[in-house]
Amino acid sequence: MSELTSIKKWFWWHRWSSLICTLFLLMLCLTGLPLIFTEELTHALSNDPPYTVVPKNTPLRSFNELSNAARQLYPGHAISSIYLDEHEPQVWLSMIPGIKDDPKFTHTIQFDARTGAVRKDNLAENVAPKTFMDMMFNLHVDMFMGLPGELFLGVMGLLFVISIISGVVLYGPFMKKLDFGEIRKHRSSRLKWLDLHNLLGIATAVWLLVVGATGVFNDLSTPLFGLWQMTDVKTMLDSYKGKTTPNAAELAPVQEAFEVAQKTLPTMKVVSIVYPGNIYGSPYHYLFWAQGNTPLTSRLYSPILVDARSGKLDKVLEMPFYLRALEVSRPLHFGDYGGMPLKVLWALFDVMAIMVLIGGVYLWMVRRKFYKNYFERLSNEETA
C-alpha cells in the first residue's frame, strides 16, 4: 500500500469521526470546564446557612438521632439513604414518600452532623428547580435523556478516540517538512489555523486520549452496575428468597449497623448508607459504601452488607474487575484527586481541547482547495 493511499484512509477516518462528534465534544468540553471546579463553584453559589459555632471537639450526632428526627419531620416517608459529607460537618439524609421507590421523588434533609440541626430541607428532584451546576452536570452526563443519552455520548466519545488516534498518525506526514511546533505566521490564515490545530492536538493528545477513553467507560457505568446486580449480587441474595423487606419497625438501629461496618474495614471510611428496599441496594440489608483514606484509594469503594433485621455483618462484597476499572477511570476523567493545581491543569487542557475542536471545524469549512493541493503534492513526491 502506497503512503498516499494509507494517508488518504487515515484522513478519511480522522475527518468523519471528528465531524460527527465535534459539536457534542464541544458541548462536553464547555460543560466539563465548570464541573472541574464543582466543589468550589457549589460552595460559591450555595445559599446554605452558616454553620453553628461549636467547640472544636464536639462529637458527631448518631445516625439514630438523625433518622428519628427525619421521621418526625416526615412521618409517612421512608428513609432511603444517608450520605456523609467528606469535606463539611454535615449529613445528607434522603427520604421517599410512601412506597414510591423512584429517585425522582426522593427529597433530602441536610443536617449539621455536630448539632443535629436541619440546615436545609431540599425538594424532591421532580419539583426542585435546577441549579447552574445541575444543568452542567446533566448536560455533560446524559443531555437530560437518561441512559439513552449516556450511551449516545459514549458513542460520540468512541468516535473522538478514533479521531485522536488518526490525528496522531497523520501528524508526521503533515509536518515532516516543518519543525516541531512551527506555526507559519506569515502564510494564509488557513495554514496558521492548521499549524495551530496540529500543535495543540499533538501537545494534548495523551490527555485527550485519556479523558476521551475514560469518558466512554464512565458512560457505561449504568449498564455495568446493572450487570453486577444481575449476576454477583443476585447470586448472593438467592439465599434470602422468600423473605420480605423489613419495615421501619423491624430495622436494627442504623448507628449500631454503621459501627459494625466500620469495624469490618477499619482502614477505610464508611461514607454512605443505603437502606433496604432502595433500588440501588439490597431488599434485606443495610448497604454501606466504604472508601480508602488516601487521595488514590479514596476513589476505590468496598460494599459491606449488614443484615437489616439483626444488625450483624453478612458479607463484604468483592467488586468485579470492570467496576474496579470504572472507579480508577473516574479521577482520571475529572482530574479531582490532586487538589487545585491538578484542577487548573485539567482546565487548561480543556481550553486547548476547545481550540482544537474549533480549529478542526474551521479547517473542514475551508478544506477543499487546501487538501486537494496537499494530496497532489504527495502524489508528485511519490512519482518522483
General description of the model:
With 384 residues, the protein is an alpha+beta fold. 54% of the residues lie in helices and 13% in strands. It contains twelve helices and eight strands. It has helices spanning 3-36, 38-45, 63-73, 132-141, 147-175, 189-203, 205-218, 221-237, 254-264, 321-334, 339-365, 367-383; strands at residues 77-84, 90-97, 107-112, 118-121, 269-274, 285-291, 301-307, 313-316. Strand 1 (77-84) and strand 2 form a beta hairpin. Helix 7 packs across helix 10. The radius of gyration is 26 Å and the shape is elongated. It starts with a helix and ends with a helix. The model has no long low-confidence stretch (mean pLDDT 86).
Defining traits:
transmembrane; PepSY-associated TM helix domain-containing protein; 13% strand; alpha+beta; elongated; PepSY-ass_TM; 12 helices; eight-stranded antiparallel sheet
What is the approximate shape? elongated
Strand content: 5-15%
Gyration radius, to the nearest Å? 26 Å
Order of helices and strands: HHHEEEEHHHHHHEEEEHHH
Order of neighbouring strands in the sheet with most strands: 4-3-2-1-5-6-7-8
Main beta sheet strand tally, sense and closure: 8 strands, antiparallel
Helix percentage: 40-55%
Average pLDDT works out at 86
Helix count, DSSP H or I runs of 4 or more residues: 12
SSE class: alpha+beta
The total count of strands amounts to 8
